[in-house]
C-alpha cells in the first residue's frame, strides 16, 4: 500500500520523537543534526524507514547530509513523488 | 592517553604489547596463500551457522524450510562480511590517524601489526564476498555530528573498535567450529578469531587505560552520557545484523522491513543479544566503564 506524503512525514517524525523525551512534535524546519534530534547511531534505522515508506532502496552513494538537516528537507528529497492524499 | 611514565611506571600495557607483537611475528601468514579457495561454494549448504541466523529461535525461523534458511544464510553471510569490511575500513582510518602521534608512540610498534592483520582481514572478506556472493552490501551508516574533546574522542574510537570486534568474535568463534559450513568459511572464521583474540586483548587494556584517564577530568553526568552513547552504539551494531536487503535477497515470504522490526522486538532475540554481548558487558562493568547492564530498546 503506497503511503501519502503526510503519512510518510508523520512516520519519520514519530521515529525521531521516539528518542526525545518531552518533545511532542518536530518543527519542519528544526535543525535535526545540531539539535541532536538525529544522530549517526539512528541513521541506519532512518534509512530503512525511508526505504519502507517509499518502497524504494535509498541509493547510498547519492546521499548528501543536507537532505537530512530538517524534516522538510527529508520530505522534499525522499517523499516528493508520494501523493498528497490517498 | 597517559604515557607509562605518567601512569607511575605502570608497564602492564607495555608487557602485553611486547607479548602481542611476538605472537603476531610468530604466527604471520600470507593471506593470499593460507586459504584453499574452491571454484564455487556448495549451493545447498549453510554459509552462516543456522543458530546465528537473525530468525533463529523465532516463529519466523521455524516457518522457513531448509532451502529458505540456506538462502538466508547466504544473504546474512554477505551482510556479516560486508559489515566487517566497512568496520575494518573505519577502524584502520582511525588507527592510522593516530599511529606515531605523541600519545601513541609507545604502542606504534604494535599498531603496525594491527594494521597489517586488519588489512588482511579486509582482503579475505572482500575476496569471499566478490568471488562467491557477487557483491559487497553498501555501508548504510553515516558518521556526523559528534565532536567530543580529543581525549574523550580517543576513548570513544577505541571503545567502538573493541566492542565491534567482540561482537564479531562471537560469530567467528561459533562458525570456526561449525561443520555444517564449507571448510573455507570455517577457516576464514578461525583465522579471524585467532587474530582478533589479540586485538581484543589489546583493545580491552587500552580502553581501560583511556577510561582511567578521562575519569579524572569528566563529571558524573558526562561519564553517564558516554555510557549511554556506547550502549546505543552496541545496539546499533547488533541491529545492523538485521538487514532488510538480505531478507529481500533471500526471497523470504515476509515484508522485509516488517520482519526486521518484529525480530528486533522478539523476546527470544533480545535474550540472544544479551548472550552475544555478555563478555564485553561484563568487562565494562568490571572496570567501571558501565554502571549498569541494561541496554536501550
Describe this structure in words.
The complex is a heterodimer of chains A (86) and B (297). Helix content of chain A is 38%, strand content 0%. With 86 residues, chain A is mainly α. Chain A has a single domain (5-78), classed as Non-ribosomal Peptide Synthetase Peptidyl Carrier Protein, Chain A (Orthogonal Bundle), CATH 1.10.1200.10. The longest helix of chain A has 13 residues, at 5-17. The model of chain A has no long low-confidence stretch (mean pLDDT 89). Chain B is globular. Chain B starts with 11 loop residues before the first helix and ends in an 11-residue tail after the last helix.
Features:
heterodimer; A: 86 residues; mainly alpha; Non-ribosomal Peptide Synthetase Peptidyl Carrier Protein, Chain A; globular; B: 297 residues; Ribonucleotide Reductase, subunit A
Annotation, overall tally of beta strands of chain B: 0
- Report the β-strand fraction of chain B as a percent range: under 5%
Task: Find the biggest chain interface.
Answer: A-B, 20 and 21 residues
Beta content of chain A comes to: under 5%
Give the radius of gyration of chain B.
Answer: 20 Å
CATH fold topology of chain A = Non-ribosomal Peptide Synthetase Peptidyl Carrier Protein, Chain A
Superfamily (CATH H level) name of chain B = Ribonucleotide Reductase, subunit A
Tally the helices of chain B: what do you get? 11
Amino acid at each position: 500500500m503506497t503511503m501519502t506524503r503526510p503519512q510518510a512525514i508523520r512516520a519519520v517524525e514519530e521515529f525521531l520523537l521516539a528518542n526525545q523525551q518531552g518533545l511532542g512534535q518536530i518543527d519542519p524546519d528544526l535543525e535535526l543534526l545540531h539539535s541532536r534530534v538525529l544522530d549517526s547511531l539512528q541513521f541506519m534505522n532512518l534509512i530503512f524507514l525511508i526505504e519502507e515508506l517509499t518502497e524504494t532502496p535509498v541509493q547510498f552513494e547519492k546521499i548528501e547530509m543536507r537532505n537530512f538537516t530538517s524534516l522538510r528537507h527529508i520530505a522534499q528529497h525522499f517523499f516528493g513523488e508520494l501523493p498528497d492524499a490517498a | 592517553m597517559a604515557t607509562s611514565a605518567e601512569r607511575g611506571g605502570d608497564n602492564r600495557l607495555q608487557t602485553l604489547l611486547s607479548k602481542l607483537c611476538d605472537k603476531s611475528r610468530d604466527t604471520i601468514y600470507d593471506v593470499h596463500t593460507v586459504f584453499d579457495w574452491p571454484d564455487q561454494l556448495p549451493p545447498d549448504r549453510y554459509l552462516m551457522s543456522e543458530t546465528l541466523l537473525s530468525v533463529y529461535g523465532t516463529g519466523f525461523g521455524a516457518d522457513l524450510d531448509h532451502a529458505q534458511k540456506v538462502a538466508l544464510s547466504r544473504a546474512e553471510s554477505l551482510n556479516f562480511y560486508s559489515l566487517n569490511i566497512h568496520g575494518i575500513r573505519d577502524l584502520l582510518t582511525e588507527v592510522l590517524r593516530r599511529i606515531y602521534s605523541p600519545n601513541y608512540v609507545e604502542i606504534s610498534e604494535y599498531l603496525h601489526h594491527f594494521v597489517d592483520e586488519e588489512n588482511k582481514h579486509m582482503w579475505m572478506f572482500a575476496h569471499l564476498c566478490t568471488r562467491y556472493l557477487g557483491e559487497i552490501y553498501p555501508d548504510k551508516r553515516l558518521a556526523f555530528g559528534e565532536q567530543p574533546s580529543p581525549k574523550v574522542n580517543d576513548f570513544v574510537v577505541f571503545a567502538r573498535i573493541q566492542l565491534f570486534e567482540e561482537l564479531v568474535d562471537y560469530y567467528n568463534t561459533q562458525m570456526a567450529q561449525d561443520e555444517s559450513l564449507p571448510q573455507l568459511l570455517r577457516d576464514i572464521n578461525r583465522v579471524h578469531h585467532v587474530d582478533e583474540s589479540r586485538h581484543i586483548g589489546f583493545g580491552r587494556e587500552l580502553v581501560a587505560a583511556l577510561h582511567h584517564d578521562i575519569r579524572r577530568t569528566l563529571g558524573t553526568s558526562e561519564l553517564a552520557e558516554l555510557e549511554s552513547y556506547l550502549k546505543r552504539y552496541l545496539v546499533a551494531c547488533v541491529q545492523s545484523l538485521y538487514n532488510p536487503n538480505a531478507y529481500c535477497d533471500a526471497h523470504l515470504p515476509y515484508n522485509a522491513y516488517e520482519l526486521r522490526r518484529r525480530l528486533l522486538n522478539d523476546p527470544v532475540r533480545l535474550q540472544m543479544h544479551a548472550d552475544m554481548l555478555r563478555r564485553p558487558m561484563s568487562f565494562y562493568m568490571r572496570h567501571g566503564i558501565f554502571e549498569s547492564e541494561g541496554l536501550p530498546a
